[in-house]
Amino acid sequence: MCGRFTRSSPPQAIAEEFGVRIETVAPAEPRFNVCPSEQVLVVARGATSAGVGTPAAGVMRWGLVPWFARDPKGGPRAINARAETIATNRTFRDAFARRRCLVVADGFYEWRRDGRGRQPWFIRLRSRRPFGFAGVWERWRAAEGAPLITCAIVTCEANGVVAPIHDRMPVIVPLEARATWIARGASPADLGALLRPYPEDAMEAYPVSKLVNAARTDGPGCIRPLSPSAAGGAMQVRR
Fold first, then answer.
1. Known catalytic residue: 2?
2. Digit-coded pLDDT (tens) for 163-217
């Protein structure tokens, strides 16, 4: 799954990576512990004022409210969508077919069971460049008021770097496939081919402080590596 992630890259680096302007939608401060129900930065078509066919940056609330929900506040909202069932699950199938986005990040956390507790690990690309999670989004409309735009991150089975920590990981869309993922009219076969683990030789992981467990905690300390002894000698998972 994916329950926390980082977006600590400078706005200029994000803009260059995705070829969009983000000055008016992205806060300047870096984020080291993005949590469910918060506003996340995305790149999408049709969800911003840039026009239906133009990719643009915007913000959405993390935690998808399906179009058929009676009350957007009733019960927990899905932060993840499983790649294996996204095309058929009622909550996600319309969004998968018509409303896909890239959730901007530069790392994410997973927790590994360690005795009676769980040890957080930080996972990122070796290049340390920002990237896009495969996401789907929905626009929920009440009888009155502005529409509520929410999203979920697609997950798949873990690759060799993440598997020793957790059995699932978020889908990271390769640079060359980003246009396909958010394109209108993309075929189910082309989309399905993207829902796979990211190449493990391009990723690295290391244990971090349990400070990140608290949603209110943010800052560079969240991604600071622990010593091998503090993590139970588990640093060998880093590749």
1. yes
2. 999 999 999 999 999 999 999 889 999 999 999 999 999 999 999 999 999 999 9
User: Would residue 17 show up in a list of annotated catalytic residues for this protein?
Assistant: no
Q: Contact, 72 vs 95, CB < 8 A?
A: no
pLDDT in tens, 108-163: 999 999 887 899 999 999 999 999 999 999 998 876 777 899 999 999 999 999 99
Q: Tell the residue number behind the tokens 């880093």, with chain if given.
A: 238
Which domain CATH number covers 41? 3.90.1680.10
**pTM of the shown model:** 0.90
pLDDT, position 108: 98
As a whole number of angstroms, the distance between CA 154 and CA 37 comes to: 16
Domain hosting 222: range is 5-237
Catalytic residue among 17, 35, 101, 110: 110
The total domain count for the chain is 1
In whole angstroms, give the CA distance from residue 14 to residue 19.
8
Instruction: Kindly tell me if the per-residue pLDDT of 237 is higher than 50.
Output: no
Q: Specify whether the CB–CB gap between 38 and 62 falls below 8 A.
A: yes
160-173 residue pLDDT tens: 999 999 999 999 99
Only one residue has tokens 């030789």, namely 201
